[in-house]
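If you are new to this repository, start here. Below is one unmodified record pulled from the training split, so you can see the exact layout before writing a loader.
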Amino acid sequence: MSNEATNVDMKAIYEQTFKDIKEGEITRGKIIAINNQDVLVDVGFKSEGIIALDEFRQDEREVGKEVDVYVESIEDENGVISLSRDKAMKLKGWDTIMKNTKEGDYLTAKVVKKVKGGYIIDSMGIEGFLPASLSMFKNVPDRDVLSHEFQFKLLKVNYARKSLIVSRKEAVMKQKEEVKEKLWQAVKPGEVKSGLVKAITDFGAFIDLGGIDGLLHITDMSWSKINHPSEIVAIGDKIEVMILNVDPKGQKISLGLKQQQPDPWNDIENKYKIGSNIKGKVVNIVNYGVFVELEKGIEGLVHVSEISWLRKVNHPQEMFAVGDAVEAQILNIDKDNRRIALSIKRLEPNPWTDIENKYPVDSKITGKVRGFTDYGAFVELDSNLEGMIHVSDISWTKRVAKPEDVLKKGQKIEAVVLNVDAANQKISLGLKQLEENPWPKIAEKYPVDTSLEVEVVSVTEFGVFVKIEDDIEGLIYSSEIDKEQMSTLKPGEKINAKIIKVDVEQAKIGLSAK
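And here is the target side for that same chain:
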């Protein structure tokens, strides 16, 4: 009896050394042996458990290391306890996820496999599915995706299968917003930042500052006047820009390029003096003048009226081209509005100063017909000055519709000086004044009430022009002729009329056909 009691006590003591292990639970075990395929784990039971080597991470494969394992069965048919490292990790991971994460939260996981329609991810041993449309991995090589960790948004939890559906798209957007927020807090007016030219428009260029875009306006690119931003920057250029203004609420940043260089207008008064002569280069030509660059960032305008004392300039392109070197005189400096007025003609004495003595009224001059307008002809004088013969001063008696009907371009003619206006730089000339005014004699020859036969020259709405004799015409107003008769008249036809008015001053004869 004492031997039996002793055996019972020994058995009880032996069994007390075993842990209370239950199937379907996680317990702690110690690795006691490792071979090429299996790992032997002691969990404090009668027998050790065998777990496949590939269920352990590389850093876990160490004799004596304690690990969590899942008890699948207490003893199998061979009397060996069945354990699993994978299931232990998945259960622990699932519990952690359920306790600390909910749908809509963000988590970090590793992409472990590429499958049809997407990717399999692993988070603490729990598998999840990442749809390709939400992966943001388009055109990314598999080597840069598989076995790499990324942040994902948890979209859905499948409790039955203990799996997840995640999205990287929302996580990437969140990261971008976080980066933007940090950038908005980091940018301060006056700082200089590196940026990449992202897009160019007519009014400026958009610069990527590393997650947020700023606008570099065309007026802030150069102290010099430019016509288009592409003259300064190109897409893809890396440039240094200054932060001019930050509007976090409106998500706008104003940038400057020229502000990194001293403003050339700061000491403009010391560099340029009114009345001094300067040399520059033509950089722009407009219909009202020529812009001349004096130095980088400083331009002056030669107004069209300040180009020549003598020549009538219709458009500066007649005389200048971009790139031309010119000399001019400074007329005015407006620092506040950043304007300099220049003159080219004032480099020479004003020929109009003594014009009245040189061309006295009633004197005769010789010149060459330079051009025409509807109201007269321009005549170039011997001193390169220009006078004009009005159409009414071409002939005493002939009705001249166009000056080119009488004169030809390049024709050398003689004329009489009628008026000199030095202030407005005008000389009025007359061609008919070379001859005596015939109208007093015409008035004597054709007194009022004289009846005569005249020839129709032209018919207008207000009357009929008729030829009295060579180079002498008269007008029958429509009120002085029968409407029916007037409607049938043709040039060359002869009719009877009576003189009712002779105006010597206006050089006109009025007739009546009634």
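Two things worth knowing about this chain: Helices lie at 2-16, 85-100, 169-186, 268-271, 355-358, 439-445, 483-488. The mean pLDDT is 85.
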